[in-house]
């Protein structure tokens, strides 16, 4: 790689070139600094750096540096099984906190488990199974101390809607169950791979704005659908779209609506309402035959379900698709919840490790009759507030669920379905976050658009498509910013070396004979044509302004490249092109403060040569000072 | 919108706050400037500004400002029909240049027209028709003076490959012709709409890197396919993928290869070789029966083909898809060629107007037996070098083609197909631009990747999919830059207010007790998690460095926001999060030089309040000076 400029050298820049023209009285001694290239690196070194920034931004092995082999072993164990980090310091006082919080979340987990399983069109018992095995595995592998693990509403409803599009849970319950376990397996596999391959940033593309809209849309759909349980409508569409759902409600004849027994239930005490309603139904059982109840539930812990996984056949594609969508959604929820509570207690949650923990717990779950689980927001909040200290609270909860599974199942016989519908509606209504949506509108209209698209997409199109549309809108937003970047005229703030936007800072004033333009984006193929046109328009307008105001004629255009954080070959061509065009107008084009990678690419493409003499400056201030001094000389 | 800070005000910033602590001897008088918000604008004003930047960056109506009604009318006519701009000044000397260049490109256009039509599996005569009507229309509407209009190789081969996947040109020639005209109609419609809706920036997404790879891949495919003509193989696959093409060549038995008559032909003189080879075949016609020749061509100008457009039926989707793909490709070529020659002669070509001109000429073409046309690079180069001055050279060329169509068609009877194959191969081999690919590799590895993906995608997958993959790679490149932005530590360059990358500038030195970080990208949902982790890692590493070097303890982290050109709600949350985490470590977080839109969003989200007292500075220099003075006081 040649260095083609006497103003640009690799790293070995001599300190400064001092030039002090006598005319510059108001200025400090004129110091012109050379623009340096970044230290030279081979392609391999650059690739290595890039890969490590992409996949290992957190430098996960830094703890292992300068350690003995024995310490490295212990650290590796602690790294793989966070239980070893806190296990050795565990004591009775921590245990007491964990028992209290564990029992508290168990009281939430049991009714939620049954309800969410129904949301996924699965037998209620599967919801309880899913509150037993996965929390145990998470307690060993997970790095969050407050995550309450179990089935969650979003993943349940998405699984229910996606699977019931191809298989009816009522007509082919076994096949449906097989597909659910298979989807869970693929969700786990997908999550584990994301963690292993350190591709966790993929879930970052589900922005908060998208999730706010998505969850609100899903909540509306589910609430409408659960009217089935509340109003007792039997022939209800299971399609997850608002038009069939609403028309199905509207088309019900009066006689087919059996009188609902309960419209409202407190969200705060799902267990209380389950117990009360079960008692009520039990006491009235001779009089109220029409009330649908859960009925018989099998006793005993999770049966193995490895033999129910479904790796060939016509529905495999749906199972994989469902697995990936629910996998992404449950990861997003689990990791966001984990990070939230970790930030409150000031510890770190490692995203990629969490993905592996959640993934492995779902793979194990799929072999033991569980469906997709993750860290649930409601349960984690209860866990945190009840004083949980470590993942042991998950073990306590799992134990409570086991006791329920072994001995208390007959008690649920008379639990009315309507109470489960009420629990679901209460849970999902809480997902509608008006305030967040309002804040999005106030702060960022395009974020609000993404949110709205997710909401409407889920409501009127379908769950996966709505999600895809919302991600598309978010990506479009990034591209729009790149395609139409901001450009502006800078002026000098009197008595300083600071150059700022003329329109924003009244103290800033134009520098006569100069036009100082800042470009606020990388220069890429996607915006190079636009920037060329826009810069020529700025120059045209500046010339018109000078003519109208009898200013001194324009002689030099300075491009402030500070915010041009990258350039590609099209961008380089554009710079050359602009330079040629300005030359034909007898205008000088100089670049101020190009960042390292841009300077390097300009050098490699050999256009630095054309900027060799006085075309490249460390700052706008130095460019203005030096060029003015040249004119005066 | 409230203003929540005593350090941030709308536009009405008082000049400066002068504070001069006696301790700061090395510094100039300490001037701390307030960070201003941009002038307040309503949502509607912002939307208007944004829309005008997206759709009207060139301010197309600026010529109409401050003009009389009569002048406005004339300017509007000139705007719509550029022929009025140069028409009034046209003279004999210009005409002479245009006649010479027009006749020169006609000599190229006739053999190219016949060959490219064969490339698109169309009757050769359609290629000549397409060199007559479209150039005439372009001469009236187009704004380039050097564009040589007619069929081009890329659009021809893409149309040939896409249409012959569904309809065999040999078995159903009429249906195939109908589809070709229909595709041309939709190409024109698409191009016109892009121009009318000012969505021209869509074609910018086909970066130069992508096109280099795409054209090379297409050239290889076409060259292999044309071996059919050159080697005289009869049963040759018409699928456009390299594996079937190569295996088809390799599987030919010896006896089925008729001895080729010509392997090589000069690229410089297609017409000469057509004439010579035609003469040769004519003279040898009694002896060489095996040579395939063009055969009978109908005399006369373009017949109307409006009745052949195909607006319903099973193949409509293919016609529309083909139209859009060939439309985009031909636009990209036409506009790039137009801009290239305009830049050489220092005049402007208006992209959106060009799109309308090319689109209208294709719609008109589809009704007069023409297929997709655009500005061809080879023809425009010849036109330019032959001295063309205005679009009249296109009219001269069209006239020459008409004379050929009316009187000279029988002369082509004995033109051997092999010579057309040779012309095609010569033309497409020229599309392989080794040097451009090498330059991409040298300057920008990711651009080279996009180029390679386009090449391999076209070669081994299919033309539209290869194109889609390459665009995907280009977009991925933008997203990657946003997802993993560069962050770096800045240091002060001694004796200046300039802060630069510590690794790049040896003169730059750390400021004790400060960590100055620059983020080189907008802060978005896609990178907020990464940036949070990365910034915390910088701080951790800095603290380790301080411990190892016995430096003064870290007290303040300055985020230089100059290159953070945008922020969204996730980004704002991240800034809050980092601030809270640093507070728990008793570290101060301040922001330096946030750009206008970022300041505004911080203000709207009400987190500026938390930065109210001494948390926001106009420049890194002022932040360092002011905070140091506070510590000393």
UniProtKB/TrEMBL annotation, chains A, B:
| Key word Mitochondrion present | no
What kind of membrane protein is this, topologically? Answer: Multi-pass membrane protein
Q: Where in the cell is it found?
A: Membrane
Q: Name one GO cellular component term.
A: membrane
Subcellular location, principal: membrane
Gene3D superfamilies from the entry? STAS domain
Q: Which UniProt keywords apply?
A: Membrane, Transmembrane, Transmembrane helix, Transport
Q: Which residues cross the membrane?
A: 122-141, 148-168, 174-197, 209-227, 262-284, 395-413, 419-436, 448-476
User: Where's the STAS domain?
Assistant: 504-627
GO molecular function annotation:
secondary active sulfate transmembrane transporter activity
Protein family per UniProt: Belongs to the SLC26A/SulP transporter (TC 2.A.53) family.
Protein name, as recorded: Probable sulfate transporter 3.4 isoform X2
Source species of the chain: Juglans regia
């Amino acid at each position: 790689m040649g260095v083609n400029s006497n103003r640009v050298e690799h790293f070995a820049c001599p300190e400064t070139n001092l030039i002090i023209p006598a005319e510059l009285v108001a200025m400090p001694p004129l110091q012109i600094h050379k623009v340096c290239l970044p230290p030279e690196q081979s392609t391999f070194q650059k690739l290595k750096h890039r890969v490590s920034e992409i996949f290992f931004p957190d430098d996960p092995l830094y703890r292992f540096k300068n350690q003995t082999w024995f310490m490295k072993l212990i650290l590796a164990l602690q790294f793989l099984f966070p239980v070893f980090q806190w296990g050795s310091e565990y004591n009775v006082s921590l245990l007491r906190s964990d028992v209290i919080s564990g029992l508290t979340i168990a009281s939430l987990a049991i009714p939620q488990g049954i309800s969410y399983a129904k949301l996924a069109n699965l037998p209620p018992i599967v919801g309880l199974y899913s509150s037993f095995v996965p929390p145990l595995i998470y307690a060993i592998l997970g790095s969050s101390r407050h995550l309450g693990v179990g089935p969650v509403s979003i993943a349940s409803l998405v699984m229910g809607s996606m699977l019931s599009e191809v298989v009816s849970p009522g007509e082919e319950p076994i096949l449906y169950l097989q597909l659910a376990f298979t989807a869970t397996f693929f969700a786990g596999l997908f999550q584990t791979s994301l963690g292993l391959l350190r591709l966790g940033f993929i879930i970052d593309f589900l922005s908060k704005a998208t999730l706010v809209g998505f969850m609100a849309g899903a909540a509306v759909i589910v609430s409408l659908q659960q009217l089935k349980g509340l109003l007792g409508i039997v022939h209800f569409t299971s399609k997850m779209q608002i038009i069939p759902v609403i028309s199905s409600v509207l088309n019900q004849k009066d006689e087919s609506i059996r009188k609902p027994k309960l419209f409202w239930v407190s969200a705060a005490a799902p267990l209380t309402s389950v117990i009360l309603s079960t008692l009520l139904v039990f006491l009235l059982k001779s009089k109220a035959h029409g009330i649908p109840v859960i009925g018989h539930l099998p006793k005993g812990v999770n049966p193995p379900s490895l033999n129910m996984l479904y790796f060939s056949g016509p529905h495999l594609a749906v199972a994989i698709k469902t697995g990936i969508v629910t996998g992404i959604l449950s990861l997003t929820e689990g990791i966001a919840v984990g990070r939230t509570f970790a930030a409150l207690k000031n510890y770190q949650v490692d995203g990629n490790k969490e993905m592996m923990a959640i993934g492995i717990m779902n793979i194990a779950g799929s072999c033991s009759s569980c469906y997709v689980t993750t860290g649930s927001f409601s349960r984690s909040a209860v866990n945190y507030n009840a004083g949980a200290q470590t993942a042991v609270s998950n073990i306590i909860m799992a134990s409570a669920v086991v006791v329920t599974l072994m001995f208390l199942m007959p008690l649920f016989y008379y639990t009315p379905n309507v109470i489960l519908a009420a629990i679901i509606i209460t849970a999902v209504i809480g997902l509608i976050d008006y305030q967040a949506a309002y804040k999005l509108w106030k702060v960022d209209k395009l974020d609000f658009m993404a949110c709205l698209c997710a909401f409407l997409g889920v409501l009127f199109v379908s769950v996966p498509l709505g999600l895809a549309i919302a991600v598309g809108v978010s990506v479009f937003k990034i591209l729009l910013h790149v395609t139409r970047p901001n450009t502006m005229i800078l002026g000098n703030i009197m008595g300083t070396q600071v150059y700022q936007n003329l329109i924003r800072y009244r103290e800033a004033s134009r520098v006569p004979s100069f036009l100082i333009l800042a470009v606020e984006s990388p220069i890429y193929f996607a915006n190079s044509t636009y920037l060329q046109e826009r810069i020529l328009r700025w120059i045209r307008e500046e010339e018109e302004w000078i003519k109208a105001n009898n200013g001194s004629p324009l002689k030099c255009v300075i491009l402030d490249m500070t915010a041009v954080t990258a350039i590609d070959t099209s961008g380089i061509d554009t710079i050359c092109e602009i330079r040629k065009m300005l030359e034909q107008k007898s205008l000088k084009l100089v670049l101020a403060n190009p960042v390292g990678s841009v300077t390097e690419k300009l050098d490699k493409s050999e256009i630095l040569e054309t900027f060799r003499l006085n075309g490249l400056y460390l700052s706008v201030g130095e460019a203005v000072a030096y060029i003015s001094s040249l004119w005066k000389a």
